[in-house]
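Re: that chain you flagged

S.,

Sorry for the slow reply, it's been a week of failed gels. I finally had a moment to sit down with the sequence you sent. For the record, here it is as I used it:
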Amino acid sequence: MPVAMILYQILMALALPFILAQALWRGGPAALRDRLGVGPVLPPGPCLWLHGASVGEVTSARWVIETLRAARPDVQILVTTNSLTGRDLVTGWGLVGVRAALAPVDGAGAAGRLLDRITPQALVIVENELWPVRIAAAHRRGVQVLVIGARLSERSAARWRYLPGLIGPLLARIDWLSPQDDASAQRLIALGLPRFALGPMVTLKALTQPQTLPTPFAAPAPRAATLLAASTHPGEEAGILNAFAAARAQGGPQFLILAPRHPTRGDEVAALITAAGLGFARRSKGQKPMADTPVFLADTLGEMALWYQMAGICLIGGSFADVGGHTPFEPAAFDCALIHGPSVHNFAPQFAALDRAGGTVAMRQIADLTGTLPGLDTARQIHLAAAARAGLAAFATGAQAIPNRLLKCLPGA
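Prediction finished late last night. Pasting the structure tokens below so you have them in one place:
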């Protein structure tokens, strides 16, 4: 066993008591059993284990899950996530033959226990959840390891380069991988992914289908006059609030939904709203905006679809900070008019396509919002939304290759 793997297992063993204590505290005995790999039991028959980090990843994989079940109604699918919110989201779908659980910890034999309990034909990993012990446990048992929508940033690749003894054997155990962009594919190959394991390029998030949900409150302004700042980061909110207040006075959007990427920053963001002199209601406190409330602080997880649904304009967070921007696919699917800043390297091909199609408003700095927002009337929003859909359409081509490959893992295929 490589020294790096030994050291990794030692570190996971040291962290195990804290991980299990957190699971018990937040999710009770059921969460603890999931983390130990002794949670769900599936009916006999063909089975797949699909794992995604949280809400965004499993949402992007929903189309794959539904397509598999339609083609093979006998297959059972266990979906695991790292978060209770992600687990509860999948449970809330109510899909026949689909169970949700927290993922087993990557140590203490937990992944092996789960594999032995459900005996899946394949472990299907969404995006970049490359857990060494879990993948090794599947490989030892002859369970195929497939990765869909694989993404690896240059920053993550740089970190992995310091651990060749860990990432090399891990990638060598992957049977098939469908990257979401060419840059990720090349980085993974350079780190040790066999070229024969490389599948076609498919962007899972391009398959997002908007789900109409009941709105939690009557918005103080119509959709065309509502701005959503989605998945914002430190250094973005203050500028957004100031620009919104100025644009609001000039006839721009009258209602702002501010959704920080990490809801644990709720108190910090609430203080920024107060400092900007704006009244607000707060989702985590169960508050609802009144007719004259200009800001709603959406400091919860797993509810972004609600805010996309309510907003005619969406500012993509992380693009005005040195973060790289977040997905344009979901807000585009909801026909939001998109605004982004200069930092978009996480989705560089997608934003380039959007800009070429005229499907976004690209800005160099947040302060430019003040002069731009008043001009985004209903007609302009409709034009931008249509152009965004057209610009992103090409990224959904070839998607059937993923369920086709997963179906090959099942008996009788």
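What I noticed first: The mean pLDDT is 94.

Talk soon,
D.
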